[in-house]
Amino acid sequence: MRTVTKDNITDVFMAYLAEDTDPRMREVMGAMVKHLHDFAREVNLTHEEWRTGIAFLEGCAAVETPDRHEFVLASDVLGLSSLVDMLHSSAEATSSSVLGPFHVSGAPALEVGGDMKRHYGGPLLLAEGTIRDTDGNPIAGAELDIWQTAHNGLYASQDEEQDTYSFHGLMTVGEDGRYAFTTVKPVEYTVPSDGPVGDILRACGRHPWRPSHLHYIIKAPGFKTLVTEIFPDDDPYLDHDTVFGVRDDLVMTYVEKPGSDFPDGMAISGQVSDPFLHVEFDVVLACAD
Ligand SMILES: [Fe+2]
Question: Which of 11, 77, 122, 164 is most buried, by the most CB atoms less than 10 A from its CB?
Answer without folding.
Answer: 77
